[in-house]
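Q: My labmate handed me this sequence with no annotations at all. I'd like to see what the chain might look like in three dimensions before we decide whether it's worth expressing. Could you predict it?
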Amino acid sequence: MLYSHLSKYVSPDPESRLVRGITWIIRELTALVFIFSGFVKAIDPWGTLYKVEDYLAAMGLTIWPNLVVVGVFFLCGIEFFIGVCLATGCFRKGIAILSFAMMCFMLPLTLWIAVFDPVADCGCFGDAYIISNWATFWKNVLLFAFTLWLVKYNRYCACLITPAIQWIAFIATALFICLIELLGYLYQPLIDFRPYKTGTLLTEQTNADQPDFTFVYSKDGVEKEFSMDNLPDESEGWVFVDRKETASSSANENESDKGFHIWEENEDVTDEVLSPDKDRILLLMPDMGNVSISTTWKINSLHDWATQHDIDMVAAVAGSRGEIDNWIDLSMPDYPIYTADDTAIKELARGNPAVVYTHDGIVEWKSTLRAINTDDFMANDTSADPMSFARDNKRMLLNYSYIYISVMVLLIMISFIPALKNSLLRWKSNC
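A: Here is what I predict for the chain of 431 residues:
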């Protein structure tokens, strides 16, 4: 008697309107979180990749880079796919189990992040919406409870897309999210959530408080660190080696608040290099050690084209003195090479290397180098207009989104045809 009484509360009737109403609300809320989380990460796969690399570094794990890229694509895609399936009721039983399995993995992971704080933010919503590590954990606690409920009750809620054509929704969703990821990885994110958006005056982003650095110099094979106020005399044999941000500066400032600064050894030359007095091409290398030497022909060709059209071209790289010297020996560049913080470079543009074009100091377009569909810029058919290399990312996203949403809406409409037909027949019979 007691058991049967309690079971009404512990295991409510799945057919009741209240349970179905609660399940609908939980399902759609969970779907919105998964869709938003998967989409904003898929828009910027480079940013997701950087965050995953931070996680792996904090765990002391080394994984084949190409495998990490595949994992990032899969993570973004599966989150978006789970969200769409929950929202439309596709694969009701299986998708509820899959969402619960994902939360079983994510909940302890975000607890570890919240307790030990190995990264500044978890990156669960990319750069679109940054929340604290503890807020992420409690968000996942709620999602864990929601997905647990859905495992039991989701199959009792109706599908918006009939099972007979859910495979079409699967293919359409997979193609859409993979296309968005590929465009973000090969070109640039179709939505830019970072500080240096197209149309931004780049020099405005350099006025933030500059972080503190120590400077590494070498003499007689011995390296020593110096502060900005106590630099050694290079005439005494000291040779500049590297620049390091102090730990206190890194801990007390957000990476995106540091601004974009360009250095020539120990001197900040940002204002000089980024002066808005002429058009400029910035060649960016956030990881100089992993830039293929095969790109040197294309880069040197781009510099020749820029010079011919009175466009200044400079490189801002994140690399050691040895890496820079090695690049100079192999590529024999005619453009000046400066250094910058790797995080600031990654925020300005995605890709390694990447290219940014500015006019009067304003960012006009960005691209990975390989996405510029020109192997030899000095060829006769190469346009003289630098804006010819730009892409309308917003228009591309809108076009592909319209197509995808139209397909999904069409599937939903087709799914409701039998119900509408039955309703019409009942109405006629009653008449």
